[in-house]
Amino acid sequence: MPLSLPTATRPELLLDDQAAPLLDAASTDPLTPLAVGIVAPGGHGKSTLLEAVRQEYLRAGVPVIGMAQAMARRTDGGAVLLVDDAHLLPDPQLVRLRELAEARSLPLVAAYRPLPRPALAELGGALGRSWPLVALGPFDAAQVAARLGSALGCPPPAELAESVCAYTGGVPRFVAWVAAALAGTGETTVDGAAAQLPPFAVAQFRSDWERMEPALRQLLVATQAGMGLQLELLGALLGRDPDGLAELSAAARATGLLDQAGALLPVAERAIATLTPAEHRVDVLRRLAELRRERGGAVLPLARPLLGTGLVGPGIAATFEAAAAEALPEQPATAAQLYAAAVEAGRPVAAVRARWAHAAALAGDLDLALRLADQVIAAPDGASTGILSAAEDPGHAGPAGAAGRSGGARPGELRGGALVAATALAHRGQLARSAELLRWAGGPCGVLATVGLIGTGQLSDAQRLLEAPPGDSPPTLLAGAAPLMARGVHESVVGSATGALATLVRACALLEPAGRAVLLPDSPAALTALVGLHCGELRIADSVLSRAIAAGLGGDLMSARHRLLRAWIAMARGDTAAATETLAAVTGAATHMEPRDWVFAVGLEVGLARRSSDLPTLRRAWAHACEAMLRHPVDLFTLLPLGEFAVAAARLGDQDRLEPHLVQAREMLHRLGDPPLWAAMLHWSGLHAAILAAQPGGAATSRRPPAARPAQAGEHAAALARIAAHNRTCAALASAAECWLAVLAGRVDPAAVEAAARGLHEAGLGWDGARLAGQAAIRTTDRKAMVALLECARQLQGRGAGSRPAGGSPGDPPAGRPGATQRPVCRLSEREQEVAELVLAGMTYRQIGDRLFISAKTVEHHVARIRQRLGCTGRSDLLARLRELAAERG
Q1: Is there a contact between 275 and 208 (Cβ–Cβ < 8 Å)?
Q2: What is the Cα–Cα distance from 628 to 616, expressed in whole angstroms?
């Protein structure tokens, strides 16, 4: 079988510096005994040039003979010998050609591919002594553009020519294919043209492919898989020694399908992928993967395309398993698929289920992860029923004892299964159960149980775990980070906020290099963010979350949690637009949210609706909140959404439904010693809930007497005052709570209110600070104080004083426009413009008042003045005129 094939498709000839002299010689001096070689890989135009030479000789009246006449010794009579695809000739004919070239008894032009054949090399040497070899190369961008212009009938865009050049490597045959596709289909992109290559191109490639030597096809498929430079591997695949492999590689380059670096051209890669029989490609990839695995090399790129092919057998099963281990750190979802494929190929489930469970958990498939983890934990002798029995028996012997009794899974696998199960349970709101599983597992997992124990109010048990001597676990990143996480959370309860943050940040730094491979019930970044949110260190919290997201810490499983916490930070700062955008991105990308993520997502929905005074959305979100709290029991790490729910319940008059959860939260905090860092924000939310419930229309369905609600607000304010010395956020909340009570009682101290509002802003609670200043401004009778407080509120909300569109003062008319309707110029004040914009946005008077920190009655007065100034008789007329003014300003 020949190593290369003739080019059947003749690309249009575009003359270069080497071809033009040959044609000139054929036309001007046709009887000069030239001996010329045309050499190039397939598809580069050798046959096209040779045909042009033939035409020149025929026009000059010189007969053209072929190899049959040359072998019959009929070479006289002023004829010219033209030979195409000389590389396909047997050695005797190549020797005869060489003799004729050396004798120079007649003009001779031979075209051939550069194959490593001694007889062909000798012929090339003889030809080169008479005339420089004509080595045809690929088209450059200008030549590609000319070819495309000829096919399309107009000059192509430069970007199209450049992309075609890159896609085809400039090989004339492939350029012709793509040009024909562009001309025939009307496509304007390379991808579109490549997807619709003309039938002749597809048929030509299929014919060429089927006629290739099998070893050459295997080499090209291996090159497509990225193994083109793995010489030892290719030699084993093809059964060739180094010399034989070098010969085959030269044949592959001579096909014209490879670039100068030996990689497949994009057009050839696509054609091979489309037209190669699936069974042939699968067989080559399988053999490559198994050979590479046996040599200890990476197999993931080779194994991934084999997913879903139905291959079975111990070799491919071991390959899938090895590929899964490679994929796990960065691609856990792919790893889970590969473990499943290994089982389908015949690998026993027991051999891979611990790692399969780990991959499934990192990928976010907690149902599968829990099923597999339960099988790992369960004793083969039936003495254990899996996750539930291990969690319910703190005195269980643990992984070492279980493995010793049953002879089943190794201790490491049992701990891994327990970690997977604990992680899944934590995400599903079962933090206490998760902690018990981690205690049972021991080692670094046992230390991590401290976080869950503290999170559910079991401080004494957590302290005993922290005081226990360290085990003999290997010094892995997890083994180093787990104690830091445990101590950081413990410090947040019994120590200082600064100490807790410092310890947790170190845990984050330790685990960041592990990235997606880290599987934990909660990430140190999330814990740091929660502590930062509770103590006002929002910059640290945001920075840590940003790094965790960039590193992919915790894989897909933790991605939503990290992003939701970043949205919460934005909401606390008052950047509701950013919070809304992030929340929409997280919920829009999720097909399913676990209870822990869902409770934060609903908390954000409730908080954003409350901050925008969007009562219909708040009512809808409240229904979700009630369900979320049922699905996720109260723990220390969900106090932020619980606080938002408390305020929303008061706003909607539905406190009784939330009261049992608030009681649980207070009892949990009491068991922890009422830690100021964690209790402060819940008291702050309780204060606002009590304030709302005491207002007319609040707490419509509550059974608590109205007189009790102001007292509740005072209790929360007093609680905040008692912990004011703990950190600056506690101090800011205590000062603001005192101001709120005074403002509601009709005593507005502008200086105290402004100081408290700015203190909230510095603690990261920008929206709360702006609201305090705005509400105080509404209630004061001192106009000077009102103006100062409103200005403070606008500054804290992010709107600078005196802001206005560039280029003029408020109410300045736009520059004249041709054809514009001439209406009386009407100047609106800055505040009236603000009100008008919000009216156009569809807000109610109350929503506008909340946004601008004025009363709904004041908004109504502004609207009446706007209508009078614009001369509008009704609401529809007013809206039409406001839209017109907005268009003129735009």
Answers
A1: no
A2: 19
| Residue 824 pLDDT class (50, 70, 90 cuts) | very low
The distance from CA 197 to its chain's CA centroid, rounded to whole angstroms, is 33
What does the alpha-carbon distance between residue 235 and residue 238 come to, in Å, rounded to a whole number? 5
Which residues, 6+ apart, have CB-to-CB distance to 64 below 8 Å? 54, 57, 58, 79, 80, 81, 82
The two structure tokens encoding residue 821:
């309707």
Q: Would the CA dihedral through 166, 169, 171, 174 be positive or negative?
A: negative
Measured N-to-C along each axis, helices 497-511 and 538-551 cross at an angle, to the nearest 10 degrees, of 10
For 475, 494, 502, 506, 826, the CA distances from 529, given in Å and listed in that order, are 26, 18, 12, 13, 51
Match 């005196």 to its residue by tokens: 802
Q: Tokens 């009590």 belong to which residue? A: 690
For 703: left if phi > 0, alpha if psi spans -120 to 50, otherwise beta; the answer is alpha
How many CA atoms, within 13 angstroms, populate the side-chain half-sphere of residue 21?
9
pLDDT confidence of residue 398: 52
Q: How far apart are CA 386 and CA 377, in angstroms?
A: 5
pTM: 0.72
d(CA 33, CA 106): 5
- Residue 638 carries which DSSP code? G
Q: Which two tokens stand for residue 494?
A: 């019994």
Burial class (CB in 10 A: 0-12, 13-18, 19+), 497: buried
The DSSP-derived string for 387-448 is: HHHHHH-TTS-HHHHHHHHHS-S-HHHHHHHHHHHHHHHHHTT-HHHHHHHHHHH-HHHHHH
Residue with token string 């001192």? 782
Question: What 3-state DSSP class applies to 856?
Answer: helix
C-alpha distances (whole Å) from 263 to each of 222, 250, 273, 378 are 11, 13, 14, 51
**Rounded Cα distance, 282 and 288, in Å:** 10
Phi, psi of 405 (to 5 degrees): -70, -40
Give the C-alpha separation, 492 to 503, whole Å: 10
Which residue from 800, 799, 872, 801 is spatially nearest to 836, judged by alpha carbons? Answer: 872
What angle separates helix 708-722 from helix 728-744, to the nearest 10 degrees? 150
The whole-angstrom separation of Cα 504 and Cα 469 is 21
Taking alpha carbons only, the member of 272, 271, 253 closest to residue 262 is 253
d(CA 343, CA 321): 9
The CA distance from 441 to 704, in Å, is 47
Classify the C-alpha dihedral 558-561-564-568 as positive or negative: negative
Amino acid residing at 745: A
Q: Which amino acid is at 890?
A: G
φ, ψ (nearest 5 deg) of residue 803: -70, 140
**Ranges 283-287, 379-383, 473-477: which has the least confidence:** 379-383
Residues with Cβ < 8 Å from 817, sequence gap 6 or more?
Answer: 888
d(CA 191, CA 740): 64
Structural contact between residues 359 and 336, judged by C-beta atoms closer than 8 angstroms: yes
Q: φ, ψ for residue 362 (rounded to 5)?
A: -60, -30
- pLDDT tens sequence across 233-271: 788 888 888 888 888 888 888 888 888 777 888 888 887
Residue 284: CB partners within 8 Å, gap ≥ 6? 218, 221, 222, 225, 237
Which strand (E) or helix (H) includes residue 82?
strand 80-83
Any alpha helices (H) in 798-855, and if so which ranges? 830-840, 845-852
Token digits of residue 176: 């012709």
Whether the CB-CB separation of 353 and 359 falls below 8 Å is answered with no
What confidence tens digit (pLDDT) does each residue in 190-201 have?
665 555 556 666
Contact 531, 677 (CB under 8 A): yes
